[in-house]
Amino acid sequence: MEHRGRPGSAVRWRRWLVWAAALVVLLLSVQVLRVRRMPDLEPWHTVAPDAELQARDFGPGFTFADYLAQEERLLAELDRLLCQPLGDRPDQVWNRFAAGGANNPLTFPTNWNRTFELRPGTPRGVALLLHGLTDSPYSLRRTGEVLAARGFAVVGLRLPGHGTTPAALDRATREDWLAAVRLAARHCRELAPAPRPFLVVGYSNGAALATVYTLEAVEGGGLPVPDRLVLLSPAIGVTAVARFASWHRALSVMPFFAGLAWQDLEPEYDPYKYNSFPKNAGYQTYRLTRTLQEGLERLQRPGRSASLPPVLTFVSVADATVRVEDVVSALYARLEAPGNELVVFDVNRLARMAPFFAVDPSQRLRQLLVRADRPYRLTVVTNAAPDSTEVAEVVREPGATEPLRVRPLGLRWPDGVYSLSHVAIPFPADDWVYGHPPDGAVGHGARLGLVEVRGERALLRIPPAQLLRLRANPFFGYVEERLGGVVDELTGAP
Q1: What pTM was computed for the model?
Q2: In whole angstroms, what is the distance from residue 435 CA to residue 448 CA?
Q3: Residue 445 domain boundaries
């Protein structure tokens, strides 16, 4: 009689190997299809200047002047490697890398892709400005001008991997960014030594960098400690999926799969921001936010007396990049010192766009308003009345569910605008590139805020959503007013 028992271990292992091999083949087939559907890599996706600084370059004796000198060599290398070979081909007229194109920032009177400094005669204080991921110092140019007009010396830092080519961001790491921030912070203190106030302003990924740096400073180590943080659209938390953003490395080293290193491959027509997005950038932001959370957890352990300085944050309740919930749960719920404030820009209640929203952001705001355990001031910029496009500031003190005051701001929602966006907050409405500059304004490059798209679908190489996204803040005057208030408070002005 034949005995039929369970398969032996060798048989089971062979079966598992067959299934594993089949799974690998399936996954590779999916990736092959993805690669075939992706646009071809352009030179700016593969060429990056070798002169870019890395964390290991910031050794003893390396100064901020050395950083600026290396930046000069970096931009010269960019021109030689990429811009000059592209020349002035007619099909590249709006390419930011074309030497003869109208949108090449290397040809502008001021190239805001580089570190900038604004120095009043005798500074009342000093501010360090940290831009966002794929951005450049241009994103905080207006903020710097506001602070400089109030007597602050300003350093607008270009972070490694930015302001050159998207390929450079494929190589950059959070360690490179933090090394540059530490160097710039020390330089700020040289411009305005203590006890003059030190302010750090961070936008998006720069806000995460600002917070991580401040955590390092308050924990010791000889770094200058900021007296105040101002965060714009802070990237405090990212999705857990971001931790797997580096999985492509094993395949993307092979030429056929090189496109897998990229989340987006787009034409590069914006002079001050990359449109293409390497997956490494998302992974580095994930690593940065993990460092931030670990630092906040250390700060809350028993026996720790240090705390973060007061934080003022501006966010849009409609933000496709970061969530207000993450800003609250990951940061504001852990702030113990007094003086913290969260400013939320509501959607336009009169736009009547709610039936078309995929997710109603009003729910996010309602959850904040009803919290009686809120340890920070909550300010909402919203419609002054249900039937009005004028906006007002509604302030609730810590723990209060009812408004302390309502103040009309003398501002209104522009026609056709139903919300702010992640990228709009730091740019004034009259910004030459992203806003609606008035007649007679002088600027350089494409006026992207004036682009209106009408035509047939599937014809443009540029995603229509990218052109529809609001890029300037109609309420930047309010942000400017609040920045002035921070300066007055720090300097003891009446």
Answers
A1: 0.91
A2: 7
A3: 430-472
